[in-house]
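Kindly review this protein for my students:
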Amino acid sequence: MQTALLHLFERGLDGITHPEAYILRAARNLAIDRARRERCIAFSSLDEASLPEAACSQPGPERIVLGREQLARVKSAFLALDARTARIFFLHRMEGVSYSQIAIRMKVSVSTVEKAVARAVSGLALALIDPAELHPSRAIGR
């Protein structure tokens, strides 16, 4: 999902009428590409002992401020979701309930659950993008 967002960030929103659909399609295509690559090339993982030690394990002040800003945007986006979409997303992502179990609990189809999760994920992912970074010319005071 991050790579898809990076592609959108690099490209900008110009000419994209449905950014949520664009991100979901890009993420799907990237997942397919990754699965194809992994079938062809086997990678061995590194054990933790062989990894170099990080220079600083604590985030710097700029990273802390950036994280707080992103959290505020995601919180606002979550609160903007309709109640059913927010509930479905919460059940699936936070409580680990399967799509079929959510559908039974909420008396909706599995397709409805899938679409609600996709809407929530794309909305929250878009909230992580700083609008000023997408359109630097529109940024005020930068």
